[in-house]
Write a structure and sequence with these properties.
- The protein has 176 residues and is an alpha+beta fold.
- It has one domain (37-174).
- 36% of the residues lie in helices and 18% in strands.
- It contains two helices and five strands.
- The protein has helices spanning 17-71, 87-95, and strands spanning 113-115, 119-120, 127-136, 145-153, 161-167.
- Strands 1, 2, 3, 4 and 5 form a five-stranded antiparallel β-sheet that branches.
- A hairpin with a 6-residue loop joins strand 2 (119-120) and strand 3 (127-136).
């Protein structure tokens, strides 16, 4: 039979001061890295929320324009032969009286650009400017309207979201 003996720690066993300092250094580096990762993750989350809300703002306006484009009929434009007489140009002229996402109607001096008054979106409390630029296509069949949307902070900086799309008024399909 074997006897179990309790081994007592001897005086020279344990951790040295150097080993303790190295373990504290490793733990500090690990904690600092983890905290930095959390800060970066929260910044990405805030930016993603701004982007999501800005794209929702753009989508609301685009849906409003698509509905208006489906209702737009102008038989005189069926025989149009130039970019300034086509369906896209006629619908572009009409765009400036269509309500934008924040409820404002923009009648700006430039015929191809609508910019809203600065509006707060999101929980950040920042204000943003919504801009829609409409450009009728200058090549036949002159029925395609290109739209470029940009949402930028009023305080400056790069755009939060931008989108490019094309709209064809439904009336253009009724032309021979």
């Amino acid at each position: 039979m074997r006897k179990f003996k309790c081994k007592l720690l001897q005086q020279d066993q344990g951790f040295t001061l150097v080993e303790v300092l190295v373990s504290i250094l490793i733990a500090t580096i690990f904690v600092a890295t983890a905290l930095q990762g959390m800060v970066i993750a929260s910044l990405f989350k805030a930016r993603a929320q701004e982007y999501t809300e800005a794209t929702t703002w753009v989508q609301e306006d685009l849906e409003s324009l698509r509905f208006s484009a489906s209702q737009y009929v102008d038989s005189a434009r069926c025989t149009a032969t130039g970019p300034n007489n086509g369906y896209a140009d006629g619908f572009s002229d009409r765009l400036h009286n269509i309500s934008q996402p924040n409820g404002t109607v923009s009648n700006t001096a430039t015929p191809d650009s609508d910019t809203t008054t600065p509006t707060k979106i999101g929980r950040s409390g920042k204000t943003y400017t919504f801009r829609r630029i409409s450009t009728p296509r200058n090549t036949a069949p002159y029925a395609v309207l290109t739209l470029t949307y940009t949402v930028t902070p009023t305080s400056g900086g790069s755009s939060v979201a931008s989108l490019y799309t094309e709209v064809i008024p439904d009336g253009a399909f009724q032309c021979p």
